[in-house]
């Protein structure tokens, strides 16, 4: 889908090569891959917003990341004119690296040490909403009792030779807390991308399927959940045979399945790895990432650094799921808002004709299906512009602008990332 949308979202002349995989479509002002105006392809959105700061509203600039001296794909400085979020459409067939995004303190430290590798100092909490029939991903630590079950029943763990690993497991099992979990996970992160135990485990799961997990019982271990575990093992075994990332995800993190329209969040410092499916992903404006699994050893970040920073608080999948409700600024009820726990952004899903009251902040919308006519009314000048838009078009809605959405096809869907300083508290994060 990322490729299909990109065909329309990109500048003229961009051609999709059907033999190449395409993973991500970026929308927003991040200097790594900034959006430019369709009406004026040489002008970056950030330059336009620098010229017209009123389009960002009264307080979106308080999230302005200090991109001092940052240059984008052009040569323009991009220190101002930023929307507070980075919005992506992501297509994933092969597991993406196991990763965490550093918090603000660590991001600053890493940036000072290695500005090339860690381009910005912002934190990066994120949300993902499923666009395909289903989506599978690992996120946040499982309840400790479930981790203990893995560590005591999976025979291949006993075959791992590191004595530091085995003794940290014993300590955790006798007293499962965040503090005793951290060293265990760190030892698992140190496993290489070519482990015999991982290969043996993968072969056994391929043969025994759900029965390979018969020692696991209770919450988190239904037959369906075990079926997803088999899928995760087969997927990682195919793309990353022997990669220790399989153990440091499967035995420790929730394996969450989203159905179309369902969303989940990953807090700053939350571990996650996406396996399969299509999502819209929305995060604070940052490109900092620490990768520790499903990636060659030579590309891995320091496991000790990651283990030190990671949030070890356990969650259940239902705690990670985002609630969605009818949006309070919708006039027809055809738009739903996902309640995110972060202050920089939230996301809307528009499914039919609607008109949305103005925000005190910017919005970036992408048409993921159908044909739409979009018109705007910025109130003051009473100027209305209408435009027929096809799948993949990306639309910027400035602060103070009412937007009208008319669906011209039988089905259709639009996703909008936005920030609104005067949003209802349960619609955009903590205040
Ligand atoms: Zn991520």
Automatic annotation (TrEMBL):
The keyword Isomerase applies. It is an enzyme of class 5 (isomerase). Binds 1 zinc ion per subunit. GO terms for molecular function: mannose-6-phosphate isomerase activity; zinc ion binding. Its EC number is 5.3.1.8. Keywords: Isomerase, Metal-binding, Zinc. Residues 9-143 form the Phosphomannose isomerase type I catalytic domain. Zn(2+) binds at residues 99, 101, 126, 272. Its cofactor is Zn(2+). Gene3D superfamilies: Jelly Rolls, Phosphomannose Isomerase, domain 2. Transmembrane segments: none annotated. InterPro entries: Man6P_Isoase-1, Mannose-6-P_Isomerase, Pmannose_isomerase-type1_CS, PMI_typeI_cat, RmlC-like_jellyroll, RmlC_Cupin_sf. Pathway: Nucleotide-sugar biosynthesis; GDP-alpha-D-mannose biosynthesis; alpha-D-mannose 1-phosphate from D-fructose 6-phosphate: step 1/2. GO terms for biological process: carbohydrate metabolic process; GDP-mannose biosynthetic process. It catalyses: D-mannose 6-phosphate = D-fructose 6-phosphate. GO terms for cellular component: cytosol. Involved in the synthesis of the GDP-mannose and dolichol-phosphate-mannose required for a number of critical mannosyl transfer reactions. Belongs to the mannose-6-phosphate isomerase type 1 family. This is Mannose-6-phosphate isomerase. It comes from Kwoniella heveanensis BCC8398.
């Amino acid at each position: 889908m990322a490729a299909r949308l990109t065909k329309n979202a990109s500048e003229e002349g961009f051609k999709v090569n059907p033999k190449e995989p395409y993973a991500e479509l970026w929308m927003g002002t991040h200097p790594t891959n900034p959006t430019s105006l369709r009406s004026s392809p040489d002008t970056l959105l950030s330059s336009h917003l620098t010229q017209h700061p009123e389009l960002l509203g009264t307080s979106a600039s308080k999230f302005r990341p200090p991109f001092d001296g940052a240059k984008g794909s052009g040569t323009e400085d991009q220190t101002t004119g930023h929307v507070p979020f980075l919005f992506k459409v992501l297509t994933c067939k092969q597991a993406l690296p196991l990763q965490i995004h550093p918090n603000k303190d660590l991001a600053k430290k890493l940036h000072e040490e290695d500005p090339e590798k860690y381009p910005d100092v912002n934190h990066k909490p994120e949300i993902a909403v499923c666009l395909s029939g289903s989506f599978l991903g690992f996120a946040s630590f499982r309840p400790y009792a479930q981790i203990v079950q893995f560590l005591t029943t999976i025979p291949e763990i006993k075959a791992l030779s590191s004595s530091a690993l085995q003794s940290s497991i014993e300590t955790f099992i006798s007293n499962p807390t965040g503090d005793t979990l951290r060293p265990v996970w760190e030892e698992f992160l140190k496993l290489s991308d070519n482990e015999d135990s991982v290969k043996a485990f993968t072969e056994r799961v391929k043969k025994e399927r759900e029965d390979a997990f018969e020692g696991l019982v209770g919450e988190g271990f239904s037959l369906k959940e075990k079926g997803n575990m088999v899928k995760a093992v087969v997927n990682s075994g195919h793309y990353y045979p022997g990669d220790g990332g399989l153990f440091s995800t499967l035995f420790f993190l929730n394996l969450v399945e989203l159905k179309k329209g369902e969303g989940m969040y990953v807090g700053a410092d939350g571990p996650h790895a996406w396996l399969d499916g299509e999502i819209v992903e929305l995060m604070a404006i940052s490109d900092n990432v620490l990768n520790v699994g499903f990636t060659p050893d030579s590309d891995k970040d320091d496991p000790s650094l990651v283990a030190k920073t990671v949030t070890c608080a356990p969650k259940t999948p239902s705690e990670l799921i985002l609630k969605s409700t009818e949006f309070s600024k919708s006039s027809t009820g055809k738009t739903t808002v996902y309640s995110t726990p972060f202050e920089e952004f939230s996301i809307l899903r528009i499914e039919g004709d609607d008109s949305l009251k103005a925000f005190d902040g910017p919005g970036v919308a992408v048409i993921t299906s159908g044909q739409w006519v979009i018109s705007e009314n910025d109130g003051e000048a009473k100027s209305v512009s209408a435009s027929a838009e096809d799948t993949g078009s990306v639309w910027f809605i400035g602060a103070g602008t009412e937007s009208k959405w008319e669906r011209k096809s039988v089905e259709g869907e639009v996703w909008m990332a936005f920030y609104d300083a005067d949003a209802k508290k349960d619609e955009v994060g903590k205040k």
